Amino acid sequence: MPLSNRSFPVVETGAFAVIRPASFLQSSRATAKCDGKASEDTSGYPPNVRARWSTVRELATATRARLRSDGLWWVLAAAIRTSTAFGTKFSEEIMFEFHTRTRTRGDYWSSQQVIAKALYGDAHHYRPIERRLMNEALGAVEMDALASTFIDLGCGKGRALVVAAEFGWRRLVGVEYDPKLAARAKKNAASYSRRRLSSPDLSFEIIEGDAAMYEPPAGPFLLFMYNPFGEQTASAVIDRVIHSWKSDPRPVSVIYAFPRWEHQLQRPELVETARVGNPSFDMDQAIIWRLT
The pTM is what? Predict the structure, then answer.
């Protein structure tokens, strides 16, 4: 098939925009199996090192598979499109941060000492959510922004909080266990609130604490998570949300972006209302539930 007839969808992976057609990973995995090579054992390394190595290894395997199946020209074309997409994304990020007077770009890996102190010790590294996906998810929520609280568990530097504020929420709560990330989120919230265009009733609250121990506030709220922690913490969070709702029935919705532990939200009390993003790639997908 000529290059001009091929599609090269762009998938966001934190600091990189990777050209990855639907069959890209499947072909790379098949090639890896045919190689018969044992994967490197990284079990003895910290989670942040394993996460970075896994990403590099996946991209290398996928590129090798495409070189074998489609040749060098396909890879070069993909690289050019990737560079273009990255440049566009970077400029959009700069403009967003200039407009909001914040700094939420860049991945961040917490130290093992910080992670180990949490109840379940399963925190994931911070990666700012793509604003396009965030906007799609918020647009699919059937909730009055002015009458509800937006809660981001594992808020990191506060990207989702700022986007929600731009979307109309006035009461925003961020919960972050890492002290450095919590401090950055507070600075971003304060800087955003000082803008000339900010609403006088805008209220940010950044809580330095464990999401597994967080008690939801009274009144309607929208809970947001962007793959911030592991399965145990996710289960504990949903347990607390359901218990709070049963004690005081009120409008409650949940957005789970990059839903790695989606099965933990398959509860009788939770009804799925929408899915947005790319259904074939978890990192670029968000699911919305409503308690009923």
Answer: 0.72
